[in-house]
Amino acid sequence: MKVVVSLSGGLDSSTVVGQYIEKGFEIIPVHFQYGSKHNEYEKKAMYAVAAHYDIDVRVINMTTPFKHMKSNLMKSGGDIPEGHYTSDNMSLTVIPGRNTIFAAIMLGIAESENADVIALGTHLGDHDIYPDCRPEYIKALDKTVQLASDGAVRVEAPFINTDKIGICKVGLDIGVPYEYTRTCYKDQPISCGKCGSCVERLESFAANESIDPILYEDSEYYKNIIAKK
């Protein structure tokens, strides 16, 4: 069996890769470069994760079409909001149509490579802010993909009803190399520890009584977590 996975280099998608490897799937990882503030650092993380699993990645350059997309996550957008991942200001990081565009490309690759599944790392924590990460969207996308491929390809989002804490637990249990991953949304080499994405990640490791293996800038939140260990 083959699965096309969108591998950003983040915690969620890296765990999806690890889980499907555990299930015995052949992995066809796809990485999208689309002009986000953290793309450069995600790409380095993605290559490190891919090297760990000895898999070859298809890197897709989407910077030209995504120049027309408005979001604070893009280099052309405003500041990355800080605070908790569920805060209303995180809606500033929504990129219109992103998952639909990515899924369409993944479908084309899946059919070309005779893959059975395209897998996305969307999870429970995404539901409030990101419309294209909700269960009803994934269900509709799966129907569309199956219709478009005459039933040859289906969509799976294995963590659609799992929060970041649960994803982190799965990854720790199966040895996902989180030391290589990148979650921070900011345009800087060291993760900030303050944006919504960083805060959610740090909370997840703390909830699993584990210390996040990556470096962070000096932040009170991170220091408080370390002090408890």
Structure description:
This protein has 229 residues and is α/β, with parallel strands linked by helices. It has one domain: Rossmann fold (3-Layer(aba) Sandwich), CATH 3.40.50. Helix content is 40%, strand content 10%. The protein has eight helices and five strands, in the order βαβαβααβαβααα. The chain has helices at 11-22, 39-53, 63-66, 98-112, 135-148, 164-174, 196-207, 220-227, and strands at 2-6, 26-33, 58-61, 117-119, 154-156. Strands 3-2-1-4-5 form a five-stranded parallel beta sheet, with helices on both faces. Helix 2 (39-53) links the parallel strand 2 and strand 3 (58-61). Helix 1 packs across helix 6 (164-174). The chain starts with a strand and ends with a helix. The model is unreliable at 225-229 (pLDDT under 50).
CATH homologous superfamily (4th level) name: HUPs
CATH structural fold name: Rossmann fold
- Give, in spatial order, the strands making up the sheet with the most strands: 3-2-1-4-5
Query: Any idea what the CATH architecture is?
Result: 3-Layer(aba) Sandwich
Largest sheet: 5 strands, parallel
Structure, briefly:
With 229 residues, the chain is α/β, with parallel strands linked by helices. The chain is 40% helix and 10% strand.
